[in-house]
Amino acid sequence: MLFPALLLSALLALAPRTDLERGLPVSVSADAPEDPAVAQALAPSTAIIRQEFSQVLTQASDRIPRGRLGEENLLGYWVADLMRERAGRCLGRPVVFAFINSGGLRADLQAGPLKVSDIFELMPFDNELVVTEYTGRELLHLLRGGLIKKAGEPCSGVLVSLQGTPEHPLLSATWLQGGPIDPEATVLIATTDYLLASGDGLPTRGRSKTVIPTGLQIRQILLEACSELGKQGQPLPCPAPGRYRFAPGMREALLERRITW
Amino acid sequence: MVDRRAFLGGLGAALLASRLPLRAEASPRITLLHTNDTHSHLEPLASGALAGRGGIARRAGLVKRLRAQGGNLLLLDAGDVFQGTPYFNRFRGLLDYKLMSMAGYDAGTLGNHDFDAGIEGLLAALEEASFPMLNCNFSWKGAPRLAERIRPWTVKAFHGLKVGLTGVGVEFRGLVFPKNHAGVEWRDPVAPLKGVVEYLRTVEKVDLVVVLSHLGHDHHGEAIDDLNLARLVPDIDVIIGGHTHTFLEAPVQIGSTRIFQVGYGGVNLGRMDFTLGPMGRVIACGSAAIPLVEPMG
Predict the structure, then answer these.
(1) Using 50, 70 and 90 to split pLDDT, how confident is the model at B29?
(2) Do A120 and B89 touch (CB under 8 A)?
(3) Is-contact A77 A109, C-beta < 8 A?
(4) Contacting residues for A220 by C-beta, under 8 A, at least 6 apart
(5) A261 domain-assigned
(6) How far apart are CA B284 and CA B3, in angstroms?
(7) What's the domain count of chain B?
(8) Is position A210 within any domain?
């Protein structure tokens, strides 16, 4: 009895095994049957979500992606541009720079009808728009932090350039309207209350303790901007790339963490 | 990946130890099913490369089918149940935990986004969870009501097999809005986890130690992660991971610890099978063992 059993176990061990038997993930695909009780419990909530979040705001003329690590975050550019514009409108003064963390943008926008639910999936957080003061030096420090962390975080109002070599990097930035950033000058910048409080790994805390709340949720700003475009019969365009420029090999060096800062 | 030699040796020794005739219960088995970072994707994903995959009703159906096969099974989650679709904005996590309870989850842990509704919001959502929430590295001193709801560990006993479960969470700094975790502090997980694992092994005498981890799979040396945890805390059999949305094709093995993480959004259900091997220690095994062994009993 022992030998056949061991032989059987040997054959079993050597036999081809399915994904399930190997300890692999099982895809929860469309052919997986639903649990009727769970599906029934979910259905009323799905109806509410459909009713409250399915409104089409406008059309997206192209897909607006966040980009993979090392690529420009065009979706982030759209969000940061809106933050800067709305912050300036709230304060009645120019807000020259805005930034947001790429990790705070949770979904790309697809081409075609843009629904309320798409904006909620892109920006599910209830974070609010705030304005604070930075020196030019602090702004450059923040840009450098974004390059180290994500090879560039989405921002608005500046053009960033990383030249030189991995051993001798040369980071510079100019205002979008032209002209260098004065390290000693103090400017107003827009960001989120979350980023200012937690940083998400970025050096977001400047020396200034001044924080001006706007009372506006970032998501609400996005919803209103899309709704306004829809009312005007205009699609949402995809922002152009080109806010970060790298010398040959520097982007790769950033991703491989070979830059000596 | 399950090692064939270990599988063969383990199964052979288990058969010998069982003194033939072979019986399935002579070599107890356990199946671990798991998710991570479901992020309020209660419906299948609507867009992107994984569109059409996932959905809590399908996941529950799949689990029910696997449970119907008999045998010991645990359904576990490694955190970040909340945040990601309008379901969270509208229902604040109550619906997620309610449906997970219906799907038969046995335990879960807290991810950073599970604090997105704040302490009061988390407490309200946990009212809907019929399964224990595990964490051993947060200090709850400033949030006593939440402390009552979170357990450092739990034990699931099956016929001939005890499984010890615990959980670890990621550092709040830079990830969680300070006001949302008021009263709860992060501690490095290594020391508290060592204590829990030792307790589970020596006092509870569990056969299998499973850690539900929301630390992340690999932070490349910049922070504690699952790979380091396996190196720094001995005697863990399984780390079910989350946070980094890592799509692993199969469990990664560090020493005797298997580490698995299955993407995000509930598009995959992880599965690992274990049996009691030589010297009473668990070994990973293939689920084909039971159907062939059982008829001989």
Answers:
(1) confident
(2) yes
(3) no
(4) none
(5) no
(6) 8
(7) 1
(8) yes
The pLDDT value given to residue A19: 46
Q: Pick from B8, B98, B175: which is nearest to A10 by CB?
A: B8
- pTM of the predicted model, to two decimals? 0.83
Domain membership of residue B68 (yes or no) is yes
Q: Can you give the pLDDT at residue A22? A: 56
Residue of B38, B43, B56, B76 best to disrupt the A interface, most CBs of A under 10 A: B56
Q: What is the three-class DSSP state of A131?
A: strand
- A chain contacts of residue B53, beta-carbon cutoff 8 Å: 27-30
Contact A9 B12 (CB under 8 A): yes
Q: Give mean pLDDT, residues B202-218.
A: 97
Q: Complex ipTM, two decimals?
A: 0.86
Tokens found for residue B36: 């991570």
Token pair in block for residue B54:
């996932």
Cα gap B116→B176, rounded to integer Å: 7
Q: How far is B270 from chain A (nearest CA, A)?
A: 4
Is position A45 within any domain?
no
Q: Chain B residue with minimal CA distance to A32?
A: B58
What pLDDT is attached to residue B215?
A: 98
Structure token digits, residue A77: 């550019």
Structural domain range at position A127: 53-157+186-239
Q: What is the CATH number of the domain that holds A122?
A: 3.90.780.10
Give me the pLDDT at residue B21, please.
31
d(CA B8, CA A252): 46
> Does any domain span residue B256?
yes
- Reduced to 3 states (helix: H, G, I; strand: E, B; else coil), residue B77 is strand
Angle at B241 between CA B235 and CA B244, to 5 degrees: 140
* Chain B closest-CA separation from residue A179 CA (Å): 33
Count: domains in chain A: 1
